[in-house]
Amino acid sequence: MRRRVLVGLCSLCFVGCVRPLRPSLVGPSAQPVLLPPQLFREGVPKNDAEWRAAGQEAATLLSQYIAINTTNPPGNELKAAHWLRSVLGREGIEAQVFEPAPGKANLFARVQGDGTRRPLIFLNHMDVVLASPEYWKVDPFGGVVKDGYMWGRGALDMKGEAIAQLMTLIILKRAGAPLKRDIIFLATSDEEIGAGVGAGWFVENHPDLIRDAEFLINEGGTIRADASGHIEYYGVGTTEKSPFWLDVTAQGTSGHGSRPTPDNPVHRLVRALNRIATWQTPLVVTPTVERYLHDLATIETDVARRAWLADVRAALKDSAAARALTADLTYNALLRNTISITGLKGSDKTNVIPPVASAALDVRLLPGQDPAAFLAELIRVVADSAVKITPQGPNWPATESPTDTELFRAIVAAAHARDPDAFVTTPPLTGFTDSHYFRRLGIVSYGVSPFPLNQAESRGVHGNDERVSLDALTFGVHFIYDVVSRVVAR
Ligand SMILES: [Zn+2]
After folding, report:
1. Per-residue pLDDT, 32
2. 230 and 347 share a domain?
3. CATH number of the domain residue 375 falls in
4. Residue 192 Cα, ligand 1 centroid: separation in angstroms?
5. Is residue 38 domain-shared with residue 152, that is, in the same domain?
6. Given a cut of 60, is residue 386 above it in pLDDT?
7. In total, how many domains does the chain have?
8. Where are the alpha helices (DSSP H) in 287-425?
9. Among 7, 104, 374, 453, which is least packed by CB within 10 angstroms?
10. Average pLDDT for residues 48-68, to the nearest whole number?
11. Which residues are designated catalytic?
């Protein structure tokens, strides 16, 4: 591990760095941690060269972070938490590591401001999804730099974003900037499995540590670039659909497959699923989706589509326009509650009729939708009282944060500082992040991505060859610093 880190560092001199790479040994935990060199020290970077040095330091940190394999399950986030604590400790920032289960961890650090304004939270998850090395061009846990990119699982989701947050904290701390708010850095477990002992556990068990916060920055935003790298828009995540996962179960008489039974539960289940699969859930235009599509109209090149997006309510009254719009998977998911049948269970043996058959439905509800009302409607569609439909677990209504805030204005200002014509919009997420735990406490929570990504680069999230360009990393460190310093600096 240590040797691999050193090799990774040598390959990182991508901006013509001539400083010797002198790693330092730091570590409050039992095992010393070999950290990369601090490439800038004096105050806030003032020019492009100094921001490139900050970006280079971010890259060396990200390389190490990617090399800590936190594939979930099992996650092993404790190792990542110890590493983060070492990085923060070297800067004089004390961090607490909570261990809710063996090998699992949530890290909490708080940099004090003068308390005249309420805190801002940087939220990031330490776990990553599985990577199958046979489909990758490089070792997904090598922290490899190649062709101007940092490659590896988590480079985008979300170790890269975490490092941009971390560097902002480090820059403010090294500069000794007077702060009007505390800044909280919260690195959590188990985001990728959607349950467990991560952000939800932290909010439930340590609400006092975060309850007073006003703002939170998390994953779930986008900076969309075209193939040439031109930024099309800055997307801030203010809302996301809520998952309402259901089990569908049919019971019947078991028997030998050679003697069909009239109430075979698999047949009954298949009939119910056919009704579910062919049910077109009603189209619903929420105010946020309407505003987002209206924004997108300004960059839509197709004349007909531009008109539909500009007035989606009118477009949906025209069946041809509605069909064309909902043929787009994203628009479709933004305009209705959706159902994907994802799991099926019948008999383990081909010649045995089982006594029970079941299916799993991944249902996603728009903001403002009542889960109980949706379930009642689904039961009406299935129209078979012998088929039971039950929620898999607790659910929550979709959450939304307002845009009339100091933090949102700071994001707009930082975007306009880079491009006076840039537009900032609020793409709703069809998936979900951990932000809902915090929105439910009344904390204004935004998905803010630091990295401009084109479509090909975005596919790395949960896909193969996940990578972030070193230019995007430098951009991201500067952008997050720019946003956050506007709301925390005195
Ligand atoms: Zn993520």
Report:
1. 59
2. no
3. 3.30.70.360
4. 7
5. yes
6. yes
7. 2
8. 287-297, 303-310, 312-317, 319-326, 329-334, 371-382, 406-418
9. 7
10. 96
11. 127, 191
Q: Are 351 and 469 in a shared domain?
A: no
Residues 6+ apart with CB under 8 A from 409: none
Same domain? For 410 and 384 the reply is: no
Rounded alpha-carbon distances, angstroms, from residue 200 to 71, 125, 326, 398 = 19, 12, 34, 16
Residue 279 and residue 322 share a domain: yes
Same domain? For 432 and 384 the reply is no
Cα of 156 vs centre of ligand 1, distance in Å, is 8
- Give the end of a domain, one of 391, 410, 426: 391
Report the pLDDT value the prediction gives residue 42, as an integer from 0 to 100: 73
Assign 31 a pLDDT band (cuts: 50, 70, 90): low
Ligand 1 center from residue 238 Cα (angstroms): 16
pLDDT tens-digit map of 303-342 = 999 999 999 999 999 999 999 999 999 999 999 999 999 9
Considering the domain architecture, whether residues 144 and 60 belong to the same structural domain is answered as yes
φ, ψ at 203 (rounded to 5°): -65, -35
Other CB atoms within 10 Å distance of the CB of residue 383? 10
Evaluate if residue 23 carries a pLDDT over 60. Answer: no
pLDDT at 46 over 80: yes
Measure the CA–CA gap between 160 and 451, rounded to whole angstroms. Answer: 9
Using the mean position of ligand 1's atoms as its centre, give its distance from the Cα of residue 432 in Å: 9
Q: What's the whole-number mean pLDDT along residues 121-133?
A: 97
Please give the average per-residue pLDDT across 29-33, as a whole number: 56
Please give the residue range of the domain that contains residue 144: 2-93+127-176+219-240+399-488
The answer to whether residues 304 and 431 belong to one domain is no
Structure tokens at 232: 């099309």
CA of 157 to the centre of ligand 1 (A): 4
Distance CA(78)–CA(106), nearest Å, equals 8
pLDDT per residue as tens digits for the range 263-280: 999 999 999 999 999 999
Taking alpha carbons only, the member of 443, 438, 442, 414 closest to residue 164 is 414
- Ligand 1 centre to CA of 445 (Å) is 15
Q: 409-429, pLDDT tens digit by residue?
A: 999 999 999 999 889 999 999
* 33, containing H or E segment: strand 33-35
Q: How far is the CA of 218 from the centre of ligand 1 (A)?
A: 9
Residue in the block written with tokens 């708010």: 181
Report the separation in Å between the CA atom of 21 and the middle of ligand 1, taken as the mean of its atom positions.
31
**Which of 391, 408, 441 is a domain's end point?**
391
Pairwise CA distance, residues 150 & 147, whole Å: 9
